[in-house]
């Protein structure tokens, strides 16, 4: 349910270029009227705050990335959440330069921040979009990811 709220907010406010200066109380009321539960709304808003905080910390962190090819080793908890298809898709996104090492780690952090046992490839694609949208300098990667997400009906992806 939390993923549904995040997708609703992303499509309503961010993707549609709607007014972003929304009062949190008004937003909660709107989500309640849309049929979402208070506890899920609270969790989704905290998740978004954590995403914003993660982006802020990335601006100040000096992550050293070497030119060497490296392999991401997933923890047991990450593998429980991200099946082989999801992990393969993350690797694909890095190979086509949609994700950098830093944005990949932000995506994984936000996936692990979801309170769900039911996580699928489509959910991953939305999380990638949300992260790329929130990190300045990733406009081209965001556009490419958006094209990948919306072109799956034409058979380009999975």
Automatic annotation (TrEMBL):
Instruction: State the InterPro entries in the record.
Output: Smg
The lineage's top-level taxon is: Bacteria
Classification via PANTHER family: PROTEIN SMG
Family indicated by similarity: Belongs to the Smg family.
Q: What is this protein called?
A: Protein Smg homolog
* Biological source species: Vibrio scophthalmi LMG 19158
